[in-house]
Design brief:
Radius of gyration: 18 Å
CATH architecture: 2-Layer Sandwich
Order of helices and strands: HHHEEEHHEHEHEEE
Oligomer: single chain
Largest sheet: 8 strands, mixed
Distance between the termini: 48 Å
Strand content: 15-25%
Number of domains: 1
CATH topology: Muramoyl-pentapeptide Carboxypeptidase, domain 2
Length: about 190
């Protein structure tokens, strides 16, 4: 059994309610606040590099089973439609799925994002200009899908790990160098 810390800051963090603390520590741009949130024992974090915008984000999106609203808002903006700039609402369960995927693969590298949210107009345009592969009712439009790769992990291993989780749909696109993961019904292609 470990002795409780006598550090007043740690005591404060441990005793003030994790979700309330998460909200109080943000805005997310405050680095010391993010670092404090990240030290919580049940903090769940993800990191992403966006291949189209060049943006990067590393964020604690949940503490235990409680999602951090400010983090979800930042992730919604990060995963916006990179064609139009439109921000959609990303299903928080998608982040939980990606976290489980990261754990399954024992990989700390940031996910490389090819596509997150997609507006209906962008989806329609891509259906017309890309010779297939874009569903008319894509879960990207509902914020329930993401196209990713993971540096240091083969696409086959990424696909197989996603399939093993049975958390939704998994699409394998070796020519385009990404794996599609969604929180829809379990299926693969």
């Amino acid at each position: 059994m470990t002795k409780p810390s006598s550090d007043p800051r740690r005591l404060f963090l441990c005793n003030t309610g994790k979700l309330a603390l998460a909200g109080a520590l943000l805005p997310l741009s405050a680095r010391p606040a993010f670092a404090a949130l990240a030290t919580l024992p049940e903090a769940r974090s993800l990191a992403f590099d966006h291949t189209h915008t060049g943006e990067r984000i590393a964020i604690v999106y949940a503490v235990g089973e409680q999602f951090v609203p400010e983090a979800l808002a930042a992730l919604n903006r990060f995963l916006r439609d990179h064609y139009s700039g439109e921000v959609g609402m990303i299903d928080p369960q998608l982040f939980a799925l990606l976290y489980r995927l990261k754990q399954t693969l024992s990989c700390e590298s940031p996910f490389q994002v090819i596509s997150g949210y997609r507006s209906p107009a962008t989806n329609a345009h891509l259906r017309k200009t890309r010779g297939g592969g874009v569903a008319s009712h894509s879960l990207h439009m509902d914020g329930k899908a993401i196209d990713i790769r993971l540096p240091g992990v083969s696409l086959v291993d990424l696909r197989d790990a996603a399939l093993s989780l049975r958390g939704g749909g998994v699409g394998f696109y070796p020519q385009e160098q990404f794996v599609h993961a969604d929180t829809g019904r379990v299926r693969n292609w």
